[in-house]
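Bug report (template v2)

What were you trying to do?
Predict the complex of my protein with flavin-adenine dinucleotide.

What happened?
Run completed; filing so the output is reviewed.

Input:
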Amino acid sequence: MSDLKQRICIIGGGPAGLSAAMYLEKKGYENYVIYEKLNKVGGKCWSPKLKVKHNGVEEERSFETGAIMGAITYHAVSEMEEFGGYYHKGPDFKPGEPNMRREFRKTTGEIDHPFEPKIDFSMKKLLGLLKLKKQMKKLNKLMQTKYVGYDCYGHLGVAKGEYFGISKGVDGHCGATPETSFPNYIKGKNPNLKDLALPFSEFCKLNGVEEVQRIWIAPFTSFGYGFFDEIPTALVMKYLDVTTALEFVNMQLWTWQDGTQQIYEHVNKKLKHPALLETEVVKVERPEGKVLVTIKGKDGKQKTEEFDRLIVTTPLDLFAKYADATEEEKNLFSKIIHERYIDYIATFDEGKSPVISGYLVENMVPEKLGHAMVYYNRWQHLGNDCPVTVYALANHTGTPDVTYEFAQKTMDEDMVKVGFPIKEKHFAQEVYYCPHVSAKDYADGWYDKLEALQGNKNTFYAGEIISFGDMEDTCAASKDIIGRFF
Ligand SMILES: Cc1cc2nc3c(=O)[nH]c(=O)nc-3n(C[C@H](O)[C@H](O)[C@H](O)COP(=O)(O)OP(=O)(O)OC[C@H]3O[C@@H](n4cnc5c(N)ncnc54)[C@H](O)[C@@H]3O)c2cc1C
């Protein structure tokens, strides 16, 4: 039976930590504390304001260093919007709003039209597109028949050919409305689901749908989620289910006028106990029945607080280093892999700035680590000279990583080749991104092993690793963990 008076510690004030607090409140728990090491909430949703010129007048606009977009399948994020009172724009953007339009370019700068049969027409292109269309249809059907049960958050049971989790509602039946009584758990057995442990390229080959990778690659690999020869299919298809993938193709996406960070700033303000900022958790000890959390504040001083339960929303491989991790925890968390995603915000030489976002698909291969894969022009209507964000990946299983410095230099060179020479960088970072496990560890039941540890030593694991490294999956994972264990 839940004891609503329990004192609960939440590590991390990102989407996962704040949604955990919101769902705890919804269940009647009010005795919680969120520790956040930075001086802001939102984690990888950070949306600084930069000065831009609009009709000759200087004004401030939000830019994105991290999360940008959502889609109709973002049910848990919708609940966060509702709680905080701050809502997305789109999919139909009005003048003055940020937008999600984009183009494809060759690395030489030439505009490409890979999905438009009439432009640069050739028989080969037409036949290729017809094949792609056929395989998209086939995949959609397979996901609803052979792979029934794939469309829930998280990975419970998949390695054993089972499924259990909150429905993603990709069939339109699930949503954060009172009528649908979200969360709607789905559960069952389907031995075919074991195929979801395979790297996505192998899964496509097995099912005769190799061409679909052409659609999935841009919103997956360029967004830093890894390469198809290494990433388990479950991560690809649970994030980019066919509905969401088509939202990308048709540009039916959401974004937030003042940035994704504001979703979390608004939620934080409404919480009974907003996150304690500039408070880093540096040690966790869990003697019998208690959780002792040592925090370091702004002044550098440390103090230890006692709790009944702990929710970890931060990287578990790092948690194992500052907590009294058990052998099981150490062993399991050592298997976590993360992507090294690099981005910067830059302005370009006068009159030589991209006027729309763009994909550089030729650079979305492991041989091109550190190369610019995508650039994001958020304020297209402001015309030339508006800052743009550029992104690259620095790692791939089986290939030596590239350094941060190499990636920065290579991205600059790529932008010159495409025709956008960089004048000034306003911000640059490398991010611990999309924690996951290898196809082998996935098939070996890694996620079920993690599930078996939930609640041991009064500790609950949430955050990106549970389902996927995006806002929706992290918030939904909190909903699931709070729903089932609190
Ligand atoms: C470039 C980029 C683009 C992205 N694009 C999208 C997108 O378009 N759509 C989308 O849905 N998602 C996107 N994401 C992913 C999304 O931002 C993340 O999945 C999401 O922020 C994860 O939330 P989280 O709370 O699990 O982790 P985080 O956002 O990483 O938050 C963790 C928090 O914990 C804090 N913390 C860490 N250690 C400690 C400690 N010891 N003590 C106290 N606090 C600690 C950190 O400071 C941080 O604030 C993008 C991310 C990046 C970087």
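What did the reviewer find?
The two ends are 9 Å apart (CA to CA). Residues 11-17, 35-38, 43-45, 66-70, 223, 280-281, 313-314, 341, 343, 431, 433, 463-464, 469-472, 474 surround flavin-adenine dinucleotide (CB under 6 Å).
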